[in-house]
């Protein structure tokens, strides 16, 4: 299992009264039907749009079905703006039983932020929107996209058309098996996550989702794709040479 360094401050979260409470672990007994993890880096402007819509839906769902319980966990990935303060307002409004804010000491990347929180996996897919999105992209960006998709298929993951969609739903068991084996913390972490899931023979379903882009993405097209390409090669070589190993006993029958 990869070693995860956790600062002392990252072992706690603040409740609605501003008091420290110990952060639960994915290894603890479940207390909620659904946990929504929101990795955030410098998202003080975009976060409210997502939180308002998500919490309105979750609250309505709970009114319709009182047995449905949920929590939204915002992981501030070492932001330099007011992301944590913005998120904490929701904690004060809804209570820390429903909204928790974890602030990481330094930026770890999307995968690192999600892993710090934590037998089937459901992957949200935007592949059905591909024709529309291609029409809005430059030729160069479209070329980069197809190149990345080919590398994903050739080196790591087959059978998943959109590995990078931010919406992924895990059972608790699937999350504990995959995230405990994860090494990559930046943008290509989704690919390693699915690579691990396929190795463990965890069923994966790709489901079309409605997706709306909000201005302010931290993804810089050329350099981010270049870094992800390097990470894909790194993932393949590390597992191929045995530098990274997966526990065979975690495979599903």
Automatic annotation (TrEMBL):
Gene Ontology CC, one term: endoplasmic reticulum membrane
Entry similarity comment: Belongs to the glycosyltransferase 2 family.
Keywords assigned: Endoplasmic reticulum, Glycosyltransferase, Membrane, Signal-anchor, Transferase, Transmembrane, Transmembrane helix
Topology within the bilayer: Single-pass membrane protein
Main enzyme class: transferase
Pathway: Protein modification; protein glycosylation
Signal peptide: none
Any one GO biological process: protein N-linked glycosylation
Lineage of the species this protein comes from: Eukaryota, Metazoa, Chordata, Craniata, Vertebrata
Protein known as: dolichyl-phosphate beta-glucosyltransferase
Ranges where the Glycosyltransferase 2-like domain occurs: 35-115
Catalytic activities: a di-trans,poly-cis-dolichyl phosphate + UDP-alpha-D-glucose = a di-trans,poly-cis-dolichyl beta-D-glucosyl phosphate + UDP
EC number: 2.4.1.117
GO molecular-function terms, A-Z: dolichyl-phosphate beta-glucosyltransferase activity
Source species: Ursus maritimus
């Amino acid at each position: 299992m990869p070693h995860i360094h956790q600062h002392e401050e990252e072992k706690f979260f603040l409740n609605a009264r501003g008091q420290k409470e110990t952060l639960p672990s994915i290894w603890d007994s479940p207390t909620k039907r659904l946990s929504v993890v929101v990795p955030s880096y410098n998202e003080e402007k975009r976060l409210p749009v997502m939180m308002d819509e998500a919490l309105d839906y979750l609250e309505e769902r709970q009114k319709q079905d009182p047995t449905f319980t949920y929590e939204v966990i915002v992981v501030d990935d070492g932001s330099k703006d007011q992301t944590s303060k913005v998120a904490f307002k929701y904690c004060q409004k809804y209570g820390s039983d429903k909204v928790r804010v974890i602030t990481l000491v330094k930026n770890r990347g999307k995968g690192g932020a999600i892993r710090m929180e934590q037998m089937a996996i459901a992957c949200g897919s935007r592949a059905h929107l591909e024709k529309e999105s291609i029409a809005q992209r430059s030729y160069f960006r479209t070329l980069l996209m197809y190149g990345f998709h080919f590398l994903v298929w050739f080196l790591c993951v087959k059978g998943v058309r959109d590995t990078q969609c931010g919406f992924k739903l895990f059972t608790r068991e699937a999350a504990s098996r995959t995230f405990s084996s994860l090494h990559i913390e930046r943008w290509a972490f989704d690919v390693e996550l699915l690579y691990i899931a396929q190795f463990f023979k965890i069923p994966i379903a790709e489901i079309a989702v409605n997706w709306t882009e909000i201005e302010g993405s931290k993804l810089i097209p050329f350099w981010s794709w270049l870094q992800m390409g390097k990470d894909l090669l790194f993932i393949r070589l590390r597992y191929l040479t045995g530098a990274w190993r997966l526990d065979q006993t975690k495979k599903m029958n």
